[in-house]
Design goal:
disordered C terminus; about 200 residues; single chain; Four Helix Bundle (Hemerythrin (Met), subunit A); two-stranded antiparallel ribbon; mainly alpha
Length: about 200
């Protein structure tokens, strides 16, 4: 039973492909429905994990990965279709890739890394979701709501660019400094039979 949230998350990851396919073929209503299912499943598996304490390291890894994959797929497709400027998509994708690559290198060199999202990071993620949702809404038969959404997308691009650059720099400085300190500390120690010991 404790694996139910992880199973739901895996199913959400599997939704990325059909959602992307619908978007590519400009079947926006179907893509919107799949996005809605993904969003509801995200809230549901989070509720189950907290309510029954069904939390795990696997779930902590898969859950943000599922969100990132869906948002990245939407950004790529909307960019290829000309709905998102290339420079905006590059900022979003390069930032996320840099953070994931940095976390992987840190884990490889030192230890398991638990990157707690900063305020800037949370704001950036929220703006990514808002941007793609507004863009999606602008293509739906929603009348004046679609018009308002369409007029709101352009300002979101600039806000997203600022948040993406600033949060990316924040992560690089924070974790670059942490890696530097960890490297200096480990130069003072070496691994012996009984663990780490001071080198005099």
């Amino acid at each position: 039973m404790s694996q139910i949230p992880n199973i739901i998350t895996v199913l959400r990851i599997l939704l990325v492909l059909p959602t992307g396919w619908m978007l590519w073929h400009e079947r926006f209503m179907e893509a919107f429905v799949l996005m809605l299912i993904a969003g509801l499943s995200d809230a549901f598996d989070g509720f189950l994990a907290r309510r029954f304490n069904w939390m795990s390291k696997l779930g902590a890894t898969l859950d943000p990965l599922a969100d990132k994959l869906l948002v990245a797929a939407m950004f790529i497709i909307f960019t290829l279709q000309g709905h998102i400027p290339l420079w905006v998509a590059l900022i979003v994708l390069i930032r996320d890739f840099t953070i994931m690559a940095g976390a992987g290198v840190y884990k490889l060199l030192y230890e398991e890394v638990d990157i707690s999202p900063t305020f800037l990071s949370k704001a950036n993620t929220a703006m990514q979701i808002v941007t793609v949702c507004l863009l999606m809404a602008s293509f739906l038969p929603l009348g004046v709501v679609a018009d308002i959404a369409a007029s709101s997308v352009q300002p979101c691009f600039y806000v997203l660019a600022v948040l993406g650059v600033s949060s990316g720099i924040d992560y690089v400085i924070t974790w670059g400094s942490k890696a530097y300190r960890e490297g200096k500390k480990r130069k003072l120690y070496k691994h012996g039979p009984s663990g780490f010991r001071r080198v005099d």
